[in-house]
Amino acid sequence: MKIIKGDYNNREEFDEAFVGIDTVMLLSGMDEPHQRIQQHRNVIEAAKNNGVKKIVYTSIIGTEEGNAFSPIVQSNRQTEKDIQNSGLDWAIGRNGIYIEPDLEYIDTYVKEGEIRNCAGEGKCAYTSRTELGYAYANMLTDDKYNGQIYNLVGEPITQAQLADSINQVYGTNLIFNSVSVEAYTKERKAELGDFMGTIIAGIYEGIRNGANNVNSDYEKASGRSHKTALEIIKEFKPKINDWKP
To answer: pLDDT tens-digit profile of 178-188?
Structure first.
């Protein structure tokens, strides 16, 4: 395996990185939304100019208006359009919310006795990094997926159902405590800073408003059904070495 540096802010570095490359997987950047669009365009332009034939992009589920996460979604939708207009072959996955952060946060949940956020009764079609990896491997290596956008998610569940699944696997007694969007935004900003706190609160506001309650295209993109949240949680538990109820 050969590793070559490619800075999203440096178009020229990708001229070297893409030599002899037929297919590129473009991972959505982590900068603020207005910066991401040009960063992604740097990759797309370098791909076009260096013989790349296909781009597979990791986009995201969500709505372009109505919550604090929407600017992130808008930037992803713009990149989707840029890729579709690139003249290259392409396939796009819209990732659901990863379930792993909730499981990695379980110690805090147990200390507090609850999962607390502003999602209310909204449903979220969770996914996992492993499930996404399986789907993207197919999308990268098989041209039958070209020219399609796939919702890479599982079955939508509520936060209360998420708590129940965690309780079932870990033997915990968590409840779901729904708070207001305003209160949760204030809390997240205090812990994570304004930018990331706003984004996290915006994700749960979107769940509250139905932005993540979408139909799944996972089987179309992967050839098998997406695992349930309960199945993913059961598989994840052994990865936490020293967790004890």
So the answer is: 999 999 999 99
